[in-house]
Amino acid sequence: MKKILLAAVLFMATSAAMQAQLLKIGVKAGVNFANQTGDASLDGIDYSKDGITSYHAGLVAEVKLLEKFSIQPELLYSTQGASYKNAFGEFKNELGYLSIPVMAKIYLTKSFSLEVGPQASFLLSEKNDFDVKNAETFDFGLNAGLGLKLTESIFLQGRYGFGLTEASKNADIKNSVFQISAGFMF
User: Fold this and answer.
1) Which parts of the sequence belong to the Outer membrane protein beta-barrel domain (predicted)?
2) Which domains does the chain have, with CATH numbers?
3) Phi/psi at 112 (nearest 5 deg)?
4) Which of 101, 105, 140, 155 is the most exposed place for a label (fewest CB within 10 A)?
């Protein structure tokens, strides 16, 4: 009986250790350098665009599937948008999204990875300097970037995301964002 109990405890400990190596959960945050691409005319008036600096933060997981391949789903709050200007004035359009990127991570070395994957984003807030709420409630895009593990727990990421769907009901624009992140895996 003692041998069976000891075998069960060893099995559970080994299983837990293997699970810890296969799944890691963490947090990340960083800066967004966002802009919107496409035609910047609203109601027949042309605007020039400038990017905005904002932020992103949220949860991240890494599921190791092979020695050099992992899947990294994330749940982030991310602000994106642009600043628009014409002869009559300037306004800033800032969109807050719940973003769900799912990145495929290919490890080129033990600490350096190439990351690519889709992202679905759901509009949570729209803050702008004028009284028009015209953002689409869903945004879909693709991301590509690089990751660097500084330690087993601390990592850095750089990523570019470009929207494939329209970000506005009234203009032919798409989101574009460059993100720099730092994170911690537990």
Assistant:
1) 19-166
2) 24-185 (2.40.160.20)
3) -115, 125
4) 140
